[in-house]
Design a protein that fits this description.
- With 174 residues, this protein is an alpha+beta fold.
- It has a single domain (2-173), classed as 3-Layer(aba) Sandwich (Aminopeptidase), CATH 3.40.630.
- It is built from four helices and eight strands.
- It has helices at residues 19-26, 42-59, 106-120, 136-144, and strands at 2-5, 9-12, 63-68, 74-85, 88-97, 126-132, 148-155, 158-166.
- The strands form two sheets. A five-stranded antiparallel β-sheet has the order 1-2-3-4-5, sandwiched between helices.
- A hairpin with a 2-residue loop joins strand 7 (148-155) and strand 8.
- The longest helix is centred in the first third of the chain and has 18 residues, at 42-59.
- Residues 9-167 form the N-acetyltransferase domain.
- This is GNAT family N-acetyltransferase.
- Pfam families: Acetyltransf_3 (PF13302).
Length: 174
């Protein structure tokens, strides 16, 4: 099911057919450099997709496949997840894209689509991004789509900045 459309991308729910293409992306150490879990195996990726599908059922959102409109190829994931941070329940945006598409503004495009869906369709009031302090590129993506630094903390042993974006009055109108 297609969740959101962007000029060059589609966000859609993952299916079991996505395990191979996504495993190739998530198995790349460059993609997973700032992931607290590190590179993923095909089995890890299958479990991730199962978890995403459970989140769609339980919460109405999750991490979605990022698909190039023209080629229809899966180039990564972007979406929303429940996370516990410093004892509080939050909704976090996450994104990972294949290195072959880095530097084209696609992460920002996917993030904007995921945020719009979260604010307008799921009526989420506040979304965070947990970004390792050394991950400059991800911080740029977050800032480009309107996140502001909220605080600094440790998350799974990493020094991170917590960025936050709130729903605006017009985002809840859909």
């Amino acid at each position: 099911m297609i969740i959101a459309e962007a000029p060059r991308l589609l966000l859609r729910e993952f299916s079991s057919d996505d395990v191979g293409p996504l495993a190739e992306i998530l198995g790349d150490p460059r993609v997973m450099e700032f992931s607290t879990n590190g590179p993923c195996t095909e089995d890890d990726t299958r479990q991730f997709i199962d978890w995403c599908q459970g989140s769609y059922r339980d919460h109405g959102f999750g991490q979605w496949a990022v698909v190039e409109r023209l080629s229809r190829a899966v180039i990564g994931f972007c979406g929303l997840s429940h996370v516990e941070l410093d004892g509080a329940q939050e909704i976090e945006i996450g994104y990972r894209l294949a290195p072959s598409v880095w530097g084209q503004g696609l992460a920002s495009e996917a993030a904007e689509a995921a945020l719009e869906y979260g604010f307008s369709h799921c009526h989420i009031d506040s979304i965070i991004a947990i970004i390792a302090t050394r991950h400059v590129v991800s911080a740029c993506v977050a800032e480009k789509v309107g996140f502001k630094i909220d605080t600094h903390t440790k998350y799974r042993g990493w020094n991170v900045r917590i960025y936050r974006k709130h729903r605006t009055a017009n985002a809840g109108a859909a």
